[in-house]
Amino acid sequence: MANNDFDCDVLVVGLGPVGAALTALLVQHGTSVIALDRDTTVYPLPRAVHFDHEIMRFLQQLGVAEAVGRNAREITGYEFRSATGELLVSLPPAPRTPSGWAAGYMFHQPSLEVALRDILAASDFADVRLGWRYEGLTQDADGVTADLVGPDGPVAVSARFVVGCDGASSLVRQAVGGGLFDYQFDEPWLVVDAKLQPGSRLPDVNLQICDPKRPTTCVLGGPGRHRWEFMLLPGETPEQMLDDDLIQSLIAPWDCGPIELERKAVYRFHGLVANRWRAGRVLLAGDAAHQTPPFAGQGMCSGLRDAANLAWKLKAVLDGAAGEALLDTYQVEREPHCRTLIELAIGMGRIVCILDPQAAAARDAEMIERRKAGAGALPPLQPQPFAAGCILAGAPAAGTMFPQPLAGTVRMDDVLGDGPWLIVREATSISAPGLKVTALDSEALAPFRAELEPWFAAHGTAALVRPDRYVFGAGEPDVLVDAWRAALAPALQPA
């Protein structure tokens, strides 16, 4: 529960998918949260349409994977094609992932947000305030006082920490300071979402049409939905592009049959990263901390990874299991990962957004040659493991995701429960407060042993896995436990 001197442990500003997921993780473990949003309902139309296997594992951890899955479908592939339809590069989904889920999903964002908010509605630790506005804050060494405006006027709320999940135009970011790093990629695109009607016919793969006359994206949405994105050409205005007749003329060549237009909007696709994600007791997550073009489908994914990374660290600090220095590892770990994905998306975007016909022809020829030669035509798709942060630097597998085997319909995470875990090949007497110790030859892990054995053979006799399913390190169990204690304990010592 909240300290008696505070209204809550954590104030979350913004209740989109990132704010809702962060709140859900915190309240599941008894952290009191006030979560506010200026809107009174979930935004009812599609926005993000893709998440990957890691996010589905995260949703599993929250207990909503099944609910979200009812409004999602597995990704079938991603193809880049020329203006004439020639295949430039094909990105089939990976057949296996460390998360134990399909490589990616196309989904309906409002349904995901409703599932997350249902967690909050069922929790005694969540105080959800819709139709509330954040105005500013002050902080000291012990806590934060935030100025809010609710239906009945101004209210001051005190919290031990504040997390700004309030989007690209974040007001909380002003309190953190430090400005934004700009990748100088800024392209306006028209986004059109449609509901499919009986008799509709559209591609069953995601397509990037690299046409210099009008770069175009055509991708699946959640079941029964589809999306187009059309790049604005020089001289075109958002007002022009939102004209229904113009939109119909852009869609007409797809011969898609009966559809119902659900949403139209013009967005500027750009890459930005906040230089500071934390100032004292105030932190940023999601679009408040970083913004990415959509070409790699990783914008919302990056924000949900923020939530998973930050939640367990806030909880450890609030419980006294670690000191506030642990929160400094949040940006250390997440920023390089986000930058990798932003740079990947921008790299894809620069390939797609070529308007000069000669340059486009040269691009097509190069990509076709590379494809035929079996060489990668796009930047690498996999971010590197954490290089620093709350890991045992230099240890095998440190900073990578621990695998989750599936035995029938049973997934390992559901058996082991919340972390951190110490998984050892053979039974041990080692223990540490808050650390769940399980042997590979235990009854609990018996269904998963055959899949886990090769991992341990490659990395060591034990693995210490953080609550966000990332590996702290692998090796000898006593070394791992001592290092884990050291990683958390120094901040607990008096200055």
Any overview of this molecule?
Among the domains are: 8-72 and 108-180 and 272-343, FAD/NAD(P)-binding domain; 406-492, no CATH class. The radius of gyration is 23 Å and the shape is globular. The protein has helices at residues 17-28, 53-62, 65-69, 109-121, 172-176, 238-241, 244-251, 299-318, 328-352, 357-373, 412-416, 449-459, 477-488; strands spanning 8-13, 33-37, 50-52, 72-74, 78-82, 87-91, 104-107, 126-130, 133-139, 144-150, 153-164, 180-196, 206-210, 216-220, 225-231, 259-274, 278-279, 282-284, 290-291, 406-407, 410-411, 421-424, 436-439, 462-465, 471-475. By secondary structure, the chain is of the alpha+beta class. 30% of the residues lie in helices and 28% in strands. Strands 1, 2, 8, 9, 10, 11, 17 and 18 form an 8-stranded mixed beta sheet that branches. An 8-stranded mixed beta sheet has the order 6-5-13-14-15-12-16-19, sandwiched between helices. A 4-stranded mixed beta sheet has the order 23-22-24-25, covered by helices on one side. The chain is built from 13 helices and 25 strands. Helix 1 (17-28) packs parallel to helix 4 and helix 8 (299-318) runs antiparallel to helix 9.
